[in-house]
């Protein structure tokens, strides 16, 4: 169903900068950008930024198999409320997305819901078991471009090398959840001063970095496009920076919560702050903020990981890892990293679309371009109390935030409007 | 006092006041009828999710000596093993009429969560490797009884500090009360980051034989299925309090252990049985200290809040 | 605290001294000497009173009378209503079984403190007899309890406050009544 409206009085963000302009949308596309545009339906932007809709390369929609936490519909609503028009849904569902028909299920369900483009990621190994390759060709044919066993690493170098060789032929992206389980066994938080005080077993930064170090050597060998998921340490930032300098085809993402919190939050032993990678030290947080600012980290990926309230309402050690993030991402990035409007949209939208080869998203605004847009007011404060997501496990719940999504437009239809 | 969850951050005055109160219960326990009606009609529930007979019995004795009634919960035969959440278990016990909860749990912070969920006074009987506050109180009381004061005393804690809630609580309590604490352990058994801790470290027990108090922790060769030591004889050679080492200690010094002891490992049998081993007073003081804390939690201001 | 305040003074230092001397004689007379006597002062001001009485009895009988101290904090019947104050020491230096125990307190009012003290004593042994010495009896008993030895009978209204000050604790001796709120 197409509609027509004008986004009025906003600041349109383009590669050259920002300009006061109205945007006229009709039949799913931008038809005109200018001043003094009119239409039967007008959405007041009140000076907010108008730019390409956000793209999230890392979410968990839990469907099929874990719908009590989230499903593709509620997840899409959460994405739209967060200003996103396209997301990549991770494959650690039940069953894992390791075959073509399962990937098609996800993308078709997303299309049925129609609020956001849901691109399934494909598992690298069958059932994410780490031993045999998933049906990579089938997945590719079903439209999968990013492959990840996220939730776990692909540990076995032999298997990973095979997958990388295979996917480098196709042009797919290998995205690694870097976690050496032999170093993180029984651990629930970062290994450091706080874990020592609490007596909790911790995960050293090395558990993330050692996997990436090895993987980068394999990238050099195979030439595959490689994406580092949820960067959390200064060491990882350094590895990514170095790899880029050497010309390796490496990209990286960071989550909003890793920009906002360090391991001192865990003094209260509240499972709302438990996720993987764990919250790290203050200097790690500064390093990832700086890296997102400079572009060493290319994109923001929320790692939106819903868990039901009862699942998180347990002692810290026993809680599942993960926090939701779609609805608060833009505000957190806005507050934590000094980015100009152009860079902000680069990190939140343009770079992600480019990485994934999405030609209908992450496009700077001009007439003719598909209308996948977001209206974002960086100065408006708000407090998230309730979420569109089925789960509410957000560490930002009840916190005052600065930067609000006023409207989201997907294929020319308004999928979200702030009340 | 609403809960007793940790000794970390407890001001010196409050610690001292708890020890003074414990002294009064030492006196009560020495009477022909070692019982007072102070908590008559109150019910204290023991929620022990980790096996522990000794600590649970100590708490039960303390509650009963205050004329409180007790209820005891342990998993295995319980509904928890049928998949009931910890929260539901705690709320059920509250609904049965518990006025206070003593909680021991393998997960860090469990007593804090239970206090939030139930709103009842909670006493931490040991959470993960984090805190065991009544142990610290009884140890501090025992040292105070013997030396009069902890100020300026040299206390060495020997053993698996990294995984010990007893060590963490004792470090906090002893240093707050003015003692100098030295940790003695192989690197694999020391906390990963000691920056800012009020402690010294030593690499072998021979370096701390001039201490006023040597506090030995129980050593296990395996923890969570992983081997933390090359072998027990190796541990004894560098860290065990042998008779020979004990003989080199000052005749005014004492040896302590939270129990249960591995005779022949961290402590030689003859040392364990020596008059300068304060293990028995520790146990006796445990009841008094737990009476003091229960009295503080339940004896007054119960109708407020 | 009240010295210099315009609060009517009922007993001065000399009055208190005389009352204590008289009570000491009465205790000796009632118990036909001081052989198996022990005075137990109830915290806070019962304690110095007990010591003074013991001193005088000691002079009368040329002997040393043991003095114990008792905090009834663990025996109150109103724990859930009152905040727990710090417990003072309960130290009874001899076995009370078979002895004549004289409980000593500054003011006898509702009788609940004495009831709690009796419970404490009975947990500690089996006295031959328990008697009560109070410096001031202000009436308004809520339990069937009476003093055996009284310094002064002081009829009061329930809202009035009775102050007892003793040098050992307050720096001066005196008993005063204050109007209630």
Compact summary:
Chain A has 419 residues and is an alpha/beta fold. Chain A has helices spanning 72-81, 100-113, 136-141, 157-170, 181-184, 193-198, 206-222, 234-245, 256-260, 282-294, 309-312, 329-336, 341-356; strands at 4-14, 17-26, 29-34, 42-44, 49-52, 54-59, 84-89, 117-120, 146-147, 173-176, 189-190, 202-203, 225-228, 250-254, 299-300, 373-382, 401-410, 413-417. Chain A has one domain: TIM Barrel (Alpha-Beta Barrel), CATH 3.20.20.
- Which oligomerization state do the chains in this entry correspond to? heterotrimer
**How many individual β-strands of chain C?**
8
Strand arrangement across the biggest beta sheet of chain B:
7-6-5-8-11
Count of beta strands of chain B:
11
Query: For the record, what CATH class of chain C applies?
Result: Alpha Beta
- The appropriate CATH architecture of the largest domain in chain B is 3-Layer(aba) Sandwich
Most extensive chain contact? A-B, 22 and 30 residues
Tally of separate helices of chain B: 10
**How many alpha or pi helices of chain C?**
4
User: Separation of termini of chain C?
Assistant: 18 Å
Q: Using the coordinates shown, work out and report the CATH topology of chain C.
A: Rossmann fold
Largest sheet of chain B: 5 strands, parallel
Assign an overall shape of chain C: globular
- Note the run of SSEs of chain C as H and E: EHEHEEHEEEHE
**Tally of structural domains of chain C:** 1
Question: Which stretches of chain B of 5+ consecutive residues score pLDDT under 50?
Answer: 301-305
Dominant shape of chain B: globular
Give the biggest sheet of chain C.
5 strands, parallel
Percentage of residues in strands of chain B: 15-25%
Low-pLDDT segments of chain C: none
General description of the model:
- The complex is a heterotrimer of chains A (419), B (305) and C (181).
- By secondary structure, chain A is of the alpha/beta class.
- Chain A is built from 13 helices and 18 strands.
- Chain A has a single domain (53-362), classed as TIM Barrel.
- In chain A, strands 1, 2, 3, 4, 5, 16, 17 and 18 form an eight-stranded mixed β-sheet that branches. Chain A has a five-stranded parallel β-sheet with strand order 9-10-13-14-15.
- In chain A, helix 4 (157-170) crosses helix 7 (206-222) and helix 7 runs parallel beside helix 8.
- The mean pLDDT of chain A is 97.
- Chain B has 305 residues and is of the alpha/beta class.
- Chain B folds into two domains: 12-131 and 284-298, Rossmann fold, CATH 3.40.50; 133-278, Aspartate/ornithine carbamoyltransferase (Rossmann fold).
- Chain B is built from ten helices and eleven strands.
- In chain B, the strands form three sheets. Chain B has a five-stranded parallel β-sheet, with helices on one face.
- In chain B, strand 1 (43-48), helix 2 and strand 2 form a beta-alpha-beta unit.
- In chain B, helix 1 (12-29) packs across helix 10 and helix 2 (53-65) packs across helix 10 (279-298).
- The longest helix of chain B is centred in the last third of the chain and has 20 residues, at 279-298.
- Chain B starts with 11 loop residues before the first helix and ends in a 7-residue tail after the last helix.
- The model of chain B is unreliable at 301-305 (pLDDT under 50).
- Chain C has one domain: 3-Layer(aba) Sandwich (Rossmann fold).
- In chain C, 28% of the residues lie in helices and 25% in strands.
- Chain C contains four helices and eight strands.
- Chain C has helices spanning 13-30, 46-61, 112-124, 167-170; strands spanning 9-11, 37-42, 67-70, 100-108, 129-137, 149-153, 161-165, 174-178.
- Chain C has a five-stranded parallel β-sheet, sandwiched between helices. Chain C has a three-stranded antiparallel β-sheet with strand order 1-8-7.
- Chain C is globular and about 45 Å long.
- The two termini of chain C are 18 Å apart.
- The model of chain C has no long low-confidence stretch (mean pLDDT 91).
- Chains in contact: A-B, B-C.
